[in-house]
Amino acid sequence: MSLTFPEWPPPWHEIRLAAEACVKSGDWGSYDSRSLELLKGRLSELFQVDHVRLCPSGTAGIELALRIAKVSPGDEVIVCGYDYPGNFRSIELLGATPVLVDLAHESLSLNVNQLTEMASAKTRAVIASHLYGNVAEMAPIGHVCRENDWVLIEDACQAPGAQAVQGQTPSPVGRLGDIGVLSFGGSKPLTAGNGGALLTCDPKLKARLDGLCDRPSNAFPLSPLQAAVLVPQLDRLHELNEQRNQRAGALRSFTQQHLTQWELPSFSAATAVSCHYKFAFLAPSSEQRQRIVHTASTWQWPIGEGFRSMHRASPNRCRKHSDLSGCEAYGERLFVLDHRALLFADNDWPQFLEWLKRLHDETASTTERTPR
Ligand SMILES: *Cc1c(COP(=O)(O)O)cnc(C)c1O
Questions:
Q1: Edge to edge, what strands does the sheet with 303-305 contain?
Q2: CA–centroid distance, residue 254 to ligand 1 (Å)
Q3: Rounded to two decimals, what is the model's pTM?
Q4: Is it the case that residue 134 has pLDDT exceeding 60?
Q5: Ligand 1, residues 155, 184, 190: which to mutate, most atoms within 8 A of Cβ?
């Protein structure tokens, strides 16, 4: 396989310069780092939120969000059965019970209609994630949460820079719940190897967060060096999201025309601007998915299975809606292509599509193999 995928984390000159400047100035070894303040300011502007708290990871961000939502032992938190598995774990770690609802095929996020069906007196919060370039139906989800006085935690780890259709103007994803969570993990569209942030406009939640973290040292810090390398990535976030979106559009058409065994999850109407961290396909069966992921790995291609669905988790661990068929299907058949593939230069893109077609054909089931 001669096709070399674009590098991620990005090998940009300006990232090296930012790291060097942080080291030279001594900012790297400072508690009140200018890099941290600069990053917070930029995030608050970009996401149009009053308060930004940097933290060590998206996972830590979700846990902190649950804590300031006052999720306590015995409480329940509603979450999609098909989601980042760490979200389920974080709920459990606080002694609370995850309550699983199905995914909505239109948004790949949680099914709003099942929210009220699963409500109980113990419900404290809801986690809604934006996955694979889609945007969750935040307006109706937020409506149910407000009516019931639940805290809405928005997991925007995969979607920095994405915008939702809300009213007349598009709104930045990450500010659409009570608390938004970002990840700066190694493969994410904004990366510092690790890292994350919490976003909120609610002064009460901000005060709780400060009380939880500042003891008086910050118990959940991001380092100044990490902040420094993120700033130049914010400068190009919009440009890269545009490029990934164009490629994703082209890939959707190519799939419909040429990759006939692969299905595309439908695309959310709530999405004004996408951020594609991963591009999702559905294989016809779980066996076929296994072949695709295996063959891709022998080519060293960044293709992997989607999340493990929690629909089979023991009833001792969670409460479940009776219909989690969407989670089950997507858990068995979904596979994802990393956003590096959406960053191919124009020269390499046709060759990538050719190889993708080969992957599709070589892994097609023998009974329905497409003619060559
Ligand atoms: C990556 C991811 C997280 C966790 O972020 P980390 O920084 O890796 O801890 C949480 N939720 C979603 C949807 C993610 O994709």
A1: 278-282, 334-338, 303-305
A2: 29
A3: 0.96
A4: yes
A5: 155
